[in-house]
Write a structure and sequence with these properties.
Elements: E1 2-5, H1 10-21, E2 27-30, H2 31-34, H3 38-48, H4 50-53, H5 59-62, H6 66-71, H7 75-84, E3 93-96, E4 99-103, H8 107-114
Parallel strand pairs: 1-2
Antiparallel strand pairs: 1-3, 3-4
Helix pairs in contact: 3-7
Protein name: Arsenate reductase
Family: Belongs to the ArsC family.
InterPro entries: Arsenate_reductase-like (IPR006660), Thioredoxin-like_sf (IPR036249), Tscrpt_reg_Spx/MgsR (IPR006504)
Amino acid sequence: MTVYGIPNCNTVKKSFDWLKANHIDFEFHDFKKKGITAEKLNTWCNIFGWETVLNRKGLTWKKLTKEEQAKIDNQNSAIAYLIKNTSAIKRPILEKNGSAILIGFDDDKYQQTLA
């Protein structure tokens, strides 16, 4: 299991706590330190949809002007933006055996998918 995110994110911390409480081993991939590839982002966008992978609720997105936000209107423009602004990737994203299975944190979905 690999958890993708940033360490100071409260949602990532909730994910860590859930995984530890349920005795599920995982590795952590820190976007800030290790970055992310366009290929990985494309894979996630194809699974979850680019509009889900792009976190529009966070400060990174909200700092953009309305004009800048309007230009991010498809998967390619979203991926170009996310590579440069990894804090705008919805998190955490969990992969099991190299395949993305969960995005964000939802106790019920974690229970259904991982328990």
